[in-house]
Structures are given as structure tokens and as C-alpha cells.
Design goal:
The complex is a heterodimer.
Chain A: H1 4-17, E1 22-23, H2 24-30, H3 39-56, E2 60-64, E3 74-78, H4 80-83, H5 92-105, H6 110-118, E4 133-135, H7 143-152, E5 156-160, E6 163-175, E7 178-185, E8 190-195, E9 200-205, H8 219-222, E10 239-244, H9 246-256, E11 261-264, E12 270-275, H10 279-287, E13 293-297, H11 299-310
Chain B: H1 10-27, E1 29-31, H2 32-38, H3 43-54, E2 68-71, E3 74-77, H4 91-105, H5 115-126, E4 135-138, H6 145-154, E5 156-164, E6 169-183, E7 186-193, E8 199-203, E9 207-216, E10 238-243, H7 249-253, E11 256-259, E12 268-273, H8 277-287, E13 291-295, H9 302-315
Classes of the chains: A alpha+beta, B alpha+beta.
Chain lengths: 312, 316
């Protein structure tokens, strides 16, 4: 039997070229000698080829004949407009810029390489070595599905913090190294922010329904300014008063902003107001300073830190 | 591109042919060497697939579907008939391009009116994403990042006041930045460090002052590491830590080399590079009772000792 790549190529060409949809019997007739003769084996081989082509991204259309001699028969074809990449018309420097961008941010991406090849660009690693600035953009399996849902305004369902959520996905944001989903949580009846890598299991798209997104929505503005606020959400914003030693005071002010400074003591140590709505995030921030920082108030946050340290 | 072993699946071969053929048809003639390097194939793999495709055909044009042959190391393509255009981008590929492009737009020095900005706009339009506000990438950068990037691009020497995490002190250093990169929300620069005579990685947010010395040095020849491989320095000591369910953020935030199977209670053993003892001390205290240092033995108590020092503050 012929090499499978040859049969797949012929099948692809036939379905692209045909002026009218073709049944499996007609396809096997055109590709003489390439499909098995027995009906069951032929069907199985064809189904395998069809799913291989779809896997590659080839849009194979099918219809079932409604009446007449061939009623009930399935016929296949490929719509050239849905198959071909068109309308992009990138200039050479634009393609090159996308290639450099890929090298600087997603150097090992096989889908990215595939995309660049389709645009007529070369290998990713031929572009950006030695670029003076680069970033690592984290990859997550659920991102393409979420982006698609954001674009099509379709609700999604997923598990988060052991609760099944149904969310209208308004937008995605990469910030401080993590991807976030911002959307309207139907169970909570309010806007919520989720760390995408903390989503439990698969993201399912609720097809057949759509939602309206607020007209002025921008994920950057909707995102809580301070990570120590994320995930709280249900509670009122809270703040703690923190004393940072002189050696680390400049770093803390840089991190939080000068407007957070309450006062600087004569020895140079500094008191700052710090969001502590999300207590674990606050604790992690505070302990980053080890014994160079201390919570002054509220008392219960101070007690929490002491209890946490005693547990080690 | 890394060489593969074993036969390549038919799907992969066809996928590669469908991006290779339009490119070949546009060029007309290309050396086998250039084409195979471009598409990550060996010359033998490339020749095999092209010869195969040259035999493809439909009645009445058997053998004439794709007019391509190889002669003396050169691929020749005749009159293009089929497969002149590549397949449409699938949603994963489109996502990769958009997110890589938008991340690069956030890097210092990116020009929204330049080729990348124009290319991204065309891409968004072609994908039907008329509204690009749904996906945003923010790479907020600390003060001095732009100065350091500028210095890296011209080879300028900088004098910095740098807070060293391992010694918990600020010192003056002279560096020549080579590459700035961001990973997991932090910004770093790989630079020639005057003090050690080696290439060192500095966190930009730990620079307290930055000024040019006025000297410029031609950039060193040694290649900069590929993004993602920045922490793959084998000389750094390693530690084995058991992480509880509430300490899994350590795996997300820091490069973790080996991850074991989770046990019944959700604890996982990981191996991490320990860039400094100070880092290890902080991380073990932050993880609290959710992390347990297994190896090496001399660090087993590091978290508890640091916690005791912090507690002393609250009891005085």
C-alpha cells in the first residue's frame, strides 16, 4: 500500500479541488488502489485519515444527502476559503518582528514555530539570540480555550478553590508573571479574579450561550492594584501597620509606593500601611523581610504572624 | 533544533509539507541544505517527503499535482498549482503569536508604531479579534530597567548600589549589562561583574542607584543564555524540599528541577537550585509548616532558626 502521507496528500488535494461534495465511494474511486477494498476496512481507513487531517487543522466539511437515490449518504469537501491563510498580508519586517518577539518570549514553543512557518518566517532560534531584552511568558494548557471564550463571549465552567464556577470571561491578564482571568462569577453574582494556573481540572465552554461584557471593561483597570487583595474578595479591604528597619526601608518604600509611608522614625526605620485582606499573601510579603520587619497592628494580624512562626 | 529518533508520524510529515510547499513555491529554487535547516528536518527526511509528494496526483493528472524535484542539492519547483498558500492558523497558534507579540510590546524599547505593532494589528484584524482589550499583558518593570536595557544595548558600564540578598547588605558594584530579562514577575540583568570577574545575574528591583561610569565596552563574545535557561547553572547548590498543599506556590514562583509524585496528603518532593542561603531562609519561613527540608542535612533546620529570630522581635 502507498505511504500514508501520499494518501493523505491526495485526499487533501481531492477534497480541495472537487467542484462538488464527494461520497466515500467516489473518493475511493478517485484514489484508486489507495484505500482497502472491503467496505468496513475502507471506512475505518478513511475515518482515520479524516481525523488526521482535522488534527492538522484542515476544515473538512460534510453533509448528509437529503433525498433521492443517495439519501442518507455522507459527502465531504473542503472550503478553500476556510482552509487557506489569507487576508493577513504581513510585510517582511512585520513577520520578522513577530519572529523576534517569539524568540524573546516563547523560545521553545512548537505551536509558535508552526505559526511562524505558516507566516513564511524561519526557525524561532534563528531570530533573537543576543537580544538585549527578553521575557518568559508562561504557558498554560487552558489559555487557548479561555482566549477563545473571551473572544466569542461564551461562558465557561471550571473548578476553583473546590467550588464549581460558572463565569462570563471578560478578559485575561498577564501580570507579575502569572495569568489571571477576570470575569463575572454567576455563583457569587459578582466580578472575580482567578489565577489561571490554580484552576482545577479542565475549562469547559458553555456553547450556545453568550454574554455582554461591560463596554468600558479593561482587564488592567479591573485587576486589584495589590496582589495582597486578590482572592480576598469576599471581605472588606483591611490594612496592617508594618515597621521596616532602616536597612530595608528604601526597598519597602520602592515596593509599596511612597504614599504608603506613615512616618519615618528618628533611627530611620519606617512605618507603612500594607494591605492584608489576603492574609497568606500579606504574610508571605512580610516574611520576605525576615526579622527586618514587624507588624505593629492590628493585634489579631500580629497574633497570626506569631502563631504562624511558632508552627514552623 | 534537536534531532528526533524513530520514524516521524504521517500527520507530522504532512503538517510540515503544508508549510514547506508554499514557501518553496514562492522561492522557485532553494538548496536542500537551507530548506532542511529552516524546517528542522534532516536532508534525508526532506528529500524523502518531497519525492513522495512529487508522486502525488489525481486522475487525470497523476504525478502532476505538485511539480517539484531535487537535483544536485537544489530543490526546483515548477508551475505552482496546489498548496500555494499555507493552512490557516489554528487557535493555539494564533494565541502563541498574539501573546508573544503583546509580551514583546511590553518590553522596554518597543515601538507601537514599529513593525511589531503593525504586524500585531494586522494579525488581530485577520483573526477577527476586532477588539483586543480582552487579552492584556502587563510586564510592569521596576525603576532603572530602561537605563539598564539602554546600557545593555550600547555596552555601557554602570556603577550600581546593590542590595545583596545572600549577605543582606548594600554594596557598590561596577557591571556591564548584557541582557535584561523578566521571569515570574521579576526583572533581572545578566552582566559582567567587575568584582568577581564573572557573568552574574542581578535583580533590577534590588538596585538602589544606577549611574553610567562613562566607559563603554564592546559586548563580550560569549553568548547570552536562551530565555528560560537562565537558572540552569549547574554550579549552584541544590536542596530537596517536601512541599505541602499550601506551599505549591514555590513550584510556580521558582525554577524547580525535579518533581516527585504527590502523596496521599498532597505533599510533593521537589529539587530546587539554591541561589543563596538567604533565599532559602526566606522561602522556608514563608512556607511555614507546609515545607520540610529533606536534604542536605546542614540546611534541615534553616527555616526554624530563621523563624526563631523573627519571633524574637515580637517577644522583646
Amino acid at each position: 500500500m502507498a505511504d500514508r502521507v501520499e494518501r493523505l496528500t491526495n485526499l487533501l488535494a481531492l477534497l480541495l479541488e472537487t467542484p462538488e461534495p464527494l461520497s466515500l465511494v467516489q473518493i475511493a474511486g478517485e484514489l484508486r488502489g489507495q484505500y482497502p477494498d472491503g467496505q468496513t476496512a475502507r471506512r475505518a481507513a478513511f475515518e482515520r485519515d479524516k481525523s488526521a487531517l482535522r488534527e492538522i487543522g484542515v476544515p473538512i466539511e460534510q453533509e448528509i444527502v437529503g433525498g433521492g437515490e443517495y439519501a442518507g449518504q455522507t459527502r465531504y469537501w473542503i472550503d478553500r476559503d476556510r482552509y487557506e491563510l489569507s487576508g493577513l498580508e504581513l510585510d517582511e519586517d512585520e513577520t520578522r518582528a513577530l519572529q523576534v518577539a517569539m524568540a524573546a518570549t516563547r523560545p521553545g514553543s512548537t505551536s509558535g514555530q508552526e505559526a511562524l512557518w505558516k507566516l513564511g518566517a524561519g526557525p524561532i532560534d534563528g531570530a533573537g539570540s543576543g537580544a538585549p531584552v527578553a521575557a518568559v511568558v508562561p504557558d498554560l494548557p487552558s489559555l487557548p480555550a479561555l482566549r477563545d471564550a473571551v473572544n466569542r463571549r461564551v461562558p465557561v465552567t471550571f473548578g476553583y478553590r473546590e467550588i464549581d464556577r460558572r463565569v462570563d470571561p471578560w478578559g485575561l491578564l498577564l501580570r507579575a508573571g502569572f495569568w489571571y482571568l477576570i470575569g463575572f462569577d454567576h455563583g457569587r453574582d459578582a466580578r472575580r479574579t482567578y489565577r489561571i494556573d490554580r484552576i482545577e481540572g479542565e475549562v469547559d465552554v458553555v456553547d450556545g450561550e453568550t454574554f455582554e461584557r461591560p463596554a468600558d471593561f479593561d482587564p488592567r483597570e479591573a485587576f486589584p492594584d495589590d496582589p495582597k487583595l486578590i482572592g480576598g474578595g469576599e471581605e472588606e479591604p483591611r490594612e496592617a501597620l508594618v515597621l521596616v528597619d532602616v536597612d530595608r526601608a528604601a526597598a519597602a518604600v520602592r515596593d509599596l509606593g511612597a504614599e504608603r509611608v506613615v512616618r519615618t522614625r528618628p533611627d530611620g526605620s519606617t512605618e507603612l500601611r500594607v494591605a492584608c485582606t489576603n492574609l497568606p499573601a500579606f504574610r508571605s510579603w512580610l516574611l520576605g523581610y525576615l526579622d527586618a520587619a514587624e507588624v505593629l497592628e492590628p493585634i489579631e494580624v500580629r497574633a497570626d504572624i506569631v502563631a504562624f512562626l511558632e508552627g514552623i | 533544533m534537536a534531532a528526533r529518533r524513530g520514524p516521524r508520524p504521517a500527520e507530522e510529515r504532512l503538517r510540515r509539507l503544508l508549510v514547506m510547499l508554499p514557501w518553496l513555491m514562492e522561492r522557485g529554487e532553494v538548496s536542500v541544505e537551507e530548506a532542511s535547516a529552516r524546517f528542522g528536518l534532516t536532508e534525508a527526511e526532506l528529500a524523502k517527503d518531497l519525492e513522495l509528494v512529487a508522486m502525488c496526483g489525481l486522475p487525470p493528472f497523476v504525478d502532476e499535482l505538485i511539480d517539484v524535484f531535487i537535483d544536485d542539492g537544489v530543490i526546483w519547483v515548477g508551475v505552482p498549482r496546489l498548496f500555494t498558500k499555507p493552512l490557516r492558523l489554528n487557535s493555539v497558534e494564533a494565541w502563541e503569536l498574539l501573546s508573544a507579540g503583546r509580551a514583546a510590546m511590553e518590553l522596554p524599547g518597543a515601538d507601537p508604531d514599529g513593525p511589531l505593532g503593525r504586524g500585531l494589528a494586522k494579525l488581530a484584524a485577520a483573526l477577527g479579534e476586532d477588539d483586543t482589550t480582552g487579552v492584556r499583558i502587563d510586564l510592569d518593570r521596576p525603576p532603572f530597567t530602561d537605563e539598564v536595557v539602554h546600557a545593555a544595548s550600547i555596552g555601557a558600564e554602570l556603577r550600581i548600589a546593590y542590595w545583596s540578598a545572600s549577605r543582606d547588605e548594600t554594596s557598590d558594584r561596577v557591571i556591564v549589562p548584557r541582557q535584561v530579562f523578566t521571569d515570574r514577575g521579576q526583572w533581572y540583568v545578566s552582566a559582567d561583574d567587575d568584582r568577581s570577574g564573572e557573568v552574574r545575574t542581578f535583580r533590577i528591583d534590588r538596585m538602589e542607584t544606577v549611574e553610567q561610569t562613562g566607559r563603554t565596552l564592546s559586548p563580550a563574545d560569549a553568548p547570552t543564555p536562551a530565555p528560560g535557561a537562565w537558572f540552569a547553572d549547574g554550579s549552584i547548590p541544590r536542596a530537596t524540599i517536601r512541599l505541602g498543599p499550601n506551599a505549591q506556590w514555590i513550584r510556580e514562583r521558582y525554577p524547580v528541577e525535579e518533581v516527585g509524585e504527590a502523596d496521599a496528603d498532597g505533599w510533593v518532593e521537589v529539587r530546587v537550585a539554591v541561589a543563596s542561603e538567604h533565599w532559602l531562609r526566606v522561602t522556608m519561613v514563608q512556607a511555614g509548616s507546609e515545607a520540610e527540608l529533606v536534604d542536605p542535612p546542614e540546611w534541615r533546620d534553616i527555616g526554624r532558626r530563621a523563624a526563631t529570630e523573627v519571633l524574637a522581635r515580637y517577644r522583646s
